[in-house]
Amino acid sequence: MATPTQLGRRSRVAVLVVIAVAVAMLGVLVVQTARQSADLTLANAAGRQRMLSERLLAAASAAHGAPLEERELWRRRAHATAEEWREDARRLTDALHDGSIPGNSPTAAEYAALDPLRGAVLAAAEAAASGSDSPAQDSLVVQQRRFVAGIDQVVARLENDSALRVDRLVQVEAACVILLLAALGLGLRLALLPAQERLVETVNALEESEGRTRAVLDAMVEGMLLIDTGGRMLGWNASALRILGIDDAHAADALPVAARRLTDARGRPLALDEVPSRVAIRSGRAMTGTRLGVSDGSSVTRWLSVNTHPLFRPEASTPYAVVSIFRDVTEEHRVEEERAVQAEARELQNRELIAHADALQREQAIFRSLVDTAGSAIVGLDRDGRVFEWNREAEQLYGVPRAAALGVSYLDSFAQLEHGTSIRHGLETVLG
User: Fold this and answer.
1) Is pTM beyond 0.70 here?
2) Strand, helix or coil at 196?
3) Torsion of Cα atoms, 245 then 249 then 255 then 257, to 10°
4) What is 336-389 written as a DSSP string?
């Protein structure tokens, strides 16, 4: 049978082993979080590239089709957007080269491969904004769609990788907590032995580990909420409060209030059962890319893209809590709304053009009817004396069908020689 000294030695060794494993897993957690932050930085930059390309397309299209008095204004807007896009791309390229954003991932290489296509969009936008030819406008639309397709593929891959990495981070964090709790249990066992300092060391290690975990959560760009099955906020990080505009001192009371001000993508208020965290707990399935709006109590709405992931205890079929990760997409939502408004305006313009065309056809039909039913010969001459109107009475009078008379010089073909000079003088007097 082991002596108390041997039990104490074994307990101390076990505590050290468990703590070592927990610290190693925390190291993995820190590495994964750094990688996730880099990918998310690249995803945000790629999303901004998409937004700038859409804003440039809208400005160049407006300059292409604007009236002369408004065209220069839209050209300046298109030029300013193009310069902003070039500067943003330059900063991201510098970050990839100097290592502040790791550029050795396949996704970063795929993003870098879009540089020629971005240049083609910028060139086509400048041509469309400065000229009036339709090929330049068509080229801009084609190049921008190709660029958006490439950017969307990069963003989708980055967001998918980020969601998977968040799942792994949560699992590693849960494992770290379990290991640290095991270490604490062994430390309590050591408390029964004459080695109080070991318990102090274990508690210090636990506090250090918790501090590292909190540092990892606070370093995340996205907001994080931990919510139990009753809808209570169990935890949050600094980014969540920053995105929602909540003071840290009142977070416990303000977060439930913000949850009651959620709206869907169309601005309709959400019932509590429709909140993504409640749906994830009820269904046991993760939800990604949910677009929600949150009001600050006035007329300002902040738009979020929310991912939720339920947490399960071992051997349990229902989740005990849910992790909600969200990011601010207010600017992207504003761009989408602007595009919708522009599309509606174009639809109204098309309707007005159709109405004007119908009215013009009716007026032309009435004019044709009046000319053809007139009891006198009606001949229309342009400044050069050529026939542009020839009604039925004129056909009967001159014996020439309308199709043969149009475009013919009246003085040379139909006027009598002695009246040619007076007719020509009359034309010059009237038209002059």
Assistant:
1) no
2) helix
3) -90
4) HHHHHHHHHHHHHHHHHHHHHHHHHHHHHHHHHHHHHH-SS--EEE-TTSBEEE
